[in-house]
Amino acid sequence: MIRNILGAMIGSRIDRRDGRGGVKGAVLGYAAQRALTRMGAPGLVLAGGYGVYRMLKDRRNRRA
């Protein structure tokens, strides 16, 4: 379940940054989530830490 959420978040970020739709973000999100889950618990910790880092960075940028 967590890996599906991570894949969706990664894919949506890629699509938002690219500006074009769908397939590229979905494929890269799927590949990224598979790679992270193959790494096991350290991969999930790294992905979660990166997500929190990006969230805090975005929040700081909005305040400024």
Keyword list:
single chain; 64 residues; mainly alpha
Structure description:
The structure is a single chain. The protein is mainly α and 64 residues long. The protein has one domain. It has 3 helices and no strands. α1 (2-18) packs antiparallel against α2 and α2 (23-38) packs across α3 (41-63). The radius of gyration is 13 Å and the shape is flat. The N and C termini lie far apart (35 Å). The mean pLDDT is 77.
Q: What would you call the quaternary organization? A: single chain
Task: Name the shape in a single word.
Answer: flat
Helix coverage percent of residues?
Answer: over 70%
From the alpha-carbon coordinates, what is the Rg to the nearest angstrom?
A: 13 Å
Distance N to C terminus: 35 Å
Number of helices: 3
Number of E-state strands: 0
- Any idea how many domains? 1
Strands, helices and their partners?
Layout: H1 2-18, H2 23-38, H3 41-63
Helix pairs in contact: 1-2, 2-3
Write a compact overview of the structure shown:
The chain is mostly helical and 64 residues long. It is 88% helix and 0% strand.
